[in-house]
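Mods, move this if it's the wrong board.
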Amino acid sequence: FASTNGITISNNFIDADEDGIDIDIDDDVAIDVTITNNTISSNDNGIELDADDDSSITGTISGNTITTTSFIYTANGIDIDVDEESIVDLTISNNTIDAEDDGINIDVDDDSTADIVVSGNDITADEDGIDAYVDDDSFLDLDVISGNTIVSVNEDGIELDADDDSSIDFTVTGNTIIADDDGVDAEETDSSYIDGSITGNSYSVGDDLLEQSGDVNVTVSGNTSL
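Not the wrong board. Structure tokens:
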């Protein structure tokens, strides 16, 4: 990468009309990000990270309290976009999120790769608790989704979509999942693949703990209905 920079944002009170924190990089740039212990209220996404055009973001988002409310913009708690052969490697832990839309939204597109740990968060969302979409020869590793409380008021606890020769690996373990629809909804289309496990979770859902379609291979064991 052309350059490497470090960004630390911590211990702030942020009240924003649009994104609370917005970091966009492109053109072969690499950054390490630490976003910790902030209180964020926004009318758009609480935290947005965008890596584009052969760029890289690594780092940690932890200990933040995020509230989003919007009738105009998309209002995800944490929004991660990875595009055009970029790389993201993040740990998202111990945050409290109350989101108008998705709690955590992840988009990986156009030959990009993301490795994201989601642990110990308290997520309440009007839409999906965690929503991940992978497209166009990309890969997402969600190998650790653990110890979270995930509440989806109207949709799925976790939604995973892989399209156009892309793939997702995931492990969902030790979470409490409460959802109006499915606990986990995994959907594959167009020569993609989803592989994962759902083990040791407590759940209360309107439909199924797991809803799947397409080339999806998931092990489900040791989960307890609330």
